[in-house]
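Why should sequence recovery work at all? Because a backbone constrains its sequence more than one might expect. Tight turns favour small or flexible residues, buried strands favour hydrophobic ones, and helices have their own preferences. The token representation captures these environments compactly. In the example below, the structure is given first.
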């Protein structure tokens, strides 16, 4: 019998304060609260983790070891869970064979369609699969791309062979192959390559006939540089060493396959058509158009196939991804696009009573597109599923059956249940979220005056319609427009033409030992502080001193190498993770031992560790709203939005020269209240003479722009134009103008 609620008792992971809560099943439940309050800890690290753990337990041990590992949450009891799907913003990584079509199954149905009704008739559907030898182009093995030598990077024409003209490792001076070119008497090793004849340069590179035509023929068996390079690096099926991989990355590039022109299929499959289009042409068509085209397939024998195909395509159109094409590699999708694609996959599923967990599904969505996303959440619920959403966007809160606020503040000041009820009730509840919802944020009344401008000239990247546009300097410019309108493409072009610092949401580090302490470099100051206060040498507090725990060498953990598996880390039993001998732990500052300091939040550390160097290094992290992080918290545990803010803090600390900064949706993961903190930080950058360009959908940020560039009108080929550039106050007649008007209370 199915339970009506997910019952959680005594949740204590991270900052949760022995939280008790009953989450209704079969509804859309939105979790809100300021950044760092514990929403993700409750939803992901507690509910999802326990659901994942329990699900894994149902598999035999052999399989269990191959499944994603879920750390069991610290919680007394959880009842009422069901099988779960987490739909987060992690990019759909993987290999070059994964496309929008394959990941949504639309490609499977398109292949079926071609196998049944294409002309000339081919037969089986695997003939239209680029993952199947029966269908794939053999030249590119179904990848659509081939790796070719980047010959322009091989030589420095201004140098002679003796001066190091051959840049390719192994071929230049001192290299294994060097004498095969410089010492054979065929080439003039002392003359810059630029002064050679074309025929000589061709012979050097390509050998073969080019070499045979020269006056002084090279010895028998001569191989040109390109021939040899490709034999060694490209025509080998060996696993390449890291070093070789590096060389490959540097001296090759990928090019469209010369045989299938990117269609990935062999000739027979490539040329068969349905309604006059080949499957490759359909893969390159906008999904909007393909959905339209699919309605024209009328053969009765394929009606179920067409219905399944259309269901996938229509879902993508509904969710605002109609501007993509099925052949688009998933590795090139943005985080928000990846998340929406994953959602489409599950809409096709006929499973019921599942638990769907979303992490900020509105990321990357213009207010105009948000309604489509909320409809999808409702559809999932209407099919009988439970939908849990972590979200800051009021438009999503508005469709929730129930809202749960965690808080009241961040870190230690959070972790409690502050509100549970409807959106209407929340608005009257006086919680931090309610307060922010009721606050009016006006359009900036005195936009800054630019000092100059950076011109982006003739931009045609992706869908951009040959744009030439001025980006004003020493102000904050916001790029707006519906998803797929070309904002990122314009930003990328700006970076390409003017060199900028891009502050993205990629992880700050992959090193699990990296923490705010190591990242800000305060460890030395900390040791000196403890030394000063206790009149002992600073070296006592270092991990490689006699003060360190002898069993784990001051690491707090013991690493066990396992022969065939990933190594394992366990907390050191001697010091119980506290890294130092009891003797060292007796020395304190403000009642804190050197190990206690790890548990301090950045904000607390600023107040409790009396040292100007420590305060100075930590202040910028506090300024960007990350004061709730603990000094010893591994940076690998940070979310995308938090990583982005760590990077902003670093720039604030280090950069002095006027710089162009480009940020993609910095409000990701931020509560309305924290957006003020972010705006303050961006203002700070501009006030230091920097130029800030932000891609953003958040209306509060748009209202605070000094300059607005609105792209559109639609996505993909229907976009790529500039609809408006100027002050925010004067924009009219675009989707962005509409959103600004609608959302500003009159
Ligand atoms: P929210 O989702 O509301 O922004 P989180 O649940 O991510 O907040 O974080 C709640 C608190 O727990 C914060 O103080 C955060 O720094 C801390 N925290 C999050 N993940 C970890 C972790 N893996 N280890 C230690 N502390 C963590
Ligand atoms: P926005 O940032 O406004 O959401 P983008 O600049 O990402 O829009 O995309 C504009 C158009 O260019 C879309 O049609 C998108 O599908 C296409 N596009 C973006 N990146 C790529 C890529 N790497 N390969 C092919 N098409 C792309
Ligand atoms: Zn090919
Ligand atoms: Zn130890």
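From this structural description, the recovered sequence reads:
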């Amino acid at each position: 019998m199915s339970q009506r609620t997910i019952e959680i008792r005594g949740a204590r992971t991270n900052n949760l304060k022995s939280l008790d809560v009953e989450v209704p099943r079969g509804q859309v439940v939105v979790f809100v609260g300021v950044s760092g309050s514990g929403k993700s800890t409750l939803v992901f690290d507690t509910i999802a983790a326990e659901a994942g753990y329990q699900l894994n337990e149902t598999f035999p041990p052999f399989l269990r070891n191959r499944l994603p590992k879920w750390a069991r949450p610290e919680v007394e009891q959880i009842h009422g869970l069901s099988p779960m799907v987490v739909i987060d913003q992690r990019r759909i990584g993987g290999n070059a064979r994964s496309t929008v079509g394959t990941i949504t199954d639309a490609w499977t149905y398109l292949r079926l369609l071609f196998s049944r009704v294409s002309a000339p008739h081919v037969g089986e559907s695997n003939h239209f699969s680029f993952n199947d030898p029966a269908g794939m182009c053999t030249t590119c093995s179904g990848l659509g791309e081939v790796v070719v030598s980047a010959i322009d990077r091989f030589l420095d024409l201004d140098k002679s062979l003796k001066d190091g003209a051959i840049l390719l490792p192994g071929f230049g001076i001192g290299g294994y192959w060097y004498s095969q070119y410089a010492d054979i008497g065929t080439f003039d090793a002392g003359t810059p390559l630029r002064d050679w004849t074309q025929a000589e340069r061709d012979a050097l590179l390509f050998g073969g006939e080019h070499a045979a035509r020269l006056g002084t023929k090279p010895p028998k068996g001569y191989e040109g540089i390109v021939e040899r390079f490709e034999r060694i690096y490209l025509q080998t099926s060996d696993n390449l060493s890291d070093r070789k991989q590096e060389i490959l990355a540097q001296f090759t590039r990928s090019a469209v396959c010369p045989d299938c022109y990117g269609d990935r299929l062999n000739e027979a499959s490539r040329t068969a058509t349905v309604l006059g289009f080949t499957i490759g042409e359909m893969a390159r068509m906008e999904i909007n158009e393909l959905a339209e085209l699919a309605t024209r397939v009328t053969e009765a024998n394929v009606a179920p196939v067409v219905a399944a195909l259309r269901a996938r395509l229509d879902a993508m159109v509904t969710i605002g991804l109609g501007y993509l094409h099925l052949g688009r590699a998933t590795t090139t999708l943005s985080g928000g696009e990846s998340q929406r694609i994953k959602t489409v996959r599950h809409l096709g599923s006929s499973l019921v009573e599942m638990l769907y967990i979303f992490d900020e599904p509105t990321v990357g969505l213009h207010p105009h597109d948000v309604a489509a996303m909320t409809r999808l959440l409702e559809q999932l619920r209407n099919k009988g599923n439970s939908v849990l959403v972590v979200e800051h966007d009021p438009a999503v809160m508005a469709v929730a059956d129930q809202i749960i606020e965690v808080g009241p503040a961040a870190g230690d000041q959070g972790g409690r249940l502050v509100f549970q009820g409807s959106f209407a009730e929340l608005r009257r509840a006086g919680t931090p979220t309610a307060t922010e919802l009721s606050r009016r944020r006006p359009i900036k009344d005195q936009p800054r005056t630019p000092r100059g401008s950076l011109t982006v000239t003739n931009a045609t990247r992706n869908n951009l319609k040959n744009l030439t546009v001025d980006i004003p300097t020493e102000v904050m410019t916001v790029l707006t427009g519906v998803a797929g309108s070309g904002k990122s493409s314009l930003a990328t072009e700006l970076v390409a033409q003017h060199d900028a610092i891009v502050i993205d949401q990629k992880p700050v580090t992959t090193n699990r030992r990296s923490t705010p302490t190591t990242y800000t470099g305060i460890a030395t100051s900390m040791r000196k502080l403890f030394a000063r206060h206790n009149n002992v040498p600073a070296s006592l507090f270092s991990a490689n001193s006699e003060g360190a725990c002898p069993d784990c060498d001051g690491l707090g953990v013991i690493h066990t190498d396992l022969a065939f598996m990933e190594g394992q880390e366990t907390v050191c039993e001697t010091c119980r993770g506290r890294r130092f001998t009891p003797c060292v732990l007796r020395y304190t500052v403000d009642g804190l031992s050197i190990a206690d300091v790890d548990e301090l939040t950045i904000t607390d550390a600023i107040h409790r560790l009396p040292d100007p160097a420590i305060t100075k290094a930590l202040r910028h992290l506090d300024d960007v709203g990350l004061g709730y992080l603990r000094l010893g918290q591994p940076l690998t545990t940070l979310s995308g939005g938090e990583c982005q803010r760590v990077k902003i803090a670093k720039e604030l600390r280090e950069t002095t020269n006027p710089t162009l900064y480009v940020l993609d949706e910095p409000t990701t993961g931020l509560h309305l209240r924290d957006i003020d903190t972010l705006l303050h930080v961006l203002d700070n950058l501009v006030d230091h003479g920097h130029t800030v360009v932000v891609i953003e959908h958040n209306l509060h940020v748009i209202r605070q722009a000094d300059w607005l560039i609105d792209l559109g009108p639609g996505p993909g080929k229907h976009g790529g134009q500039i609809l408006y550039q100027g002050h925010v106050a004067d924009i009219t007649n675009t989707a962005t103008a509409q959103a600004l008007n609608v959302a500003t209370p009159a």
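A few observations help interpret the result. Residues 563-567 have pLDDT under 50 and may be disordered.
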